Amino acid sequence: MSTDETYLTREQVAARLKITTKTLANWAWDGKGPPFMRLGLVGAPVRYPCESYFEWERSQTELFLPT
């Protein structure tokens, strides 16, 4: 698996969640949202490890079953 397939960009995650990249950045600042990492020093691009992101996404899904 290449690096491009191992990590999602902020733009890709925002598109999946149908939110702006600004909202995603605010979530990160507030300690909310999916786990992320910086590949380098401060100011380096933010990346979201795919496995951690999809686990977080599943944890945010509520399952509604008919009664």
Task: Give structural notes.
- With 67 residues, the chain is α+β, with helices and mostly antiparallel strands.
- The chain has one domain (3-58): Arc Repressor Mutant, subunit A (Orthogonal Bundle).
- Helix content is 46%, strand content 13%.
- The protein contains 4 helices and 3 strands; from the N terminus they run H-E-H-H-E-E-H.
- A 3-stranded antiparallel sheet has the order 1-3-2.
- A hairpin with a 7-residue loop joins strand 2 and strand 3 (46-49).
- Helix 2 (10-17) packs across helix 3.
- The protein is elongated and about 50 Å long.
- The protein starts with a helix and ends in an 8-residue tail after the last helix.
Measured distance between first and last alpha carbons: 43 Å
Number of helices: 4
What order do the helices and strands follow?
A: HEHHEEH
- Rg, Cα atoms, Å: 13 Å
What level of helicity do the residues show? 40-55%
Tell me the number of structural domains.
Answer: 1
Strand content: 5-15%
Structure summary, number of beta strands: 3
Spatially, the strands of the biggest sheet line up as 1-3-2
Largest sheet: 3 strands, antiparallel
CATH architecture heading: Orthogonal Bundle
Kindly state the mean pLDDT as a whole number? 89
Low-pLDDT residue spans: none
Class inferred from helices and paired strands: alpha+beta
What global shape is seen?
A: elongated
CATH level-1 class: Mainly Alpha
- Determine the CATH topology: Arc Repressor Mutant, subunit A
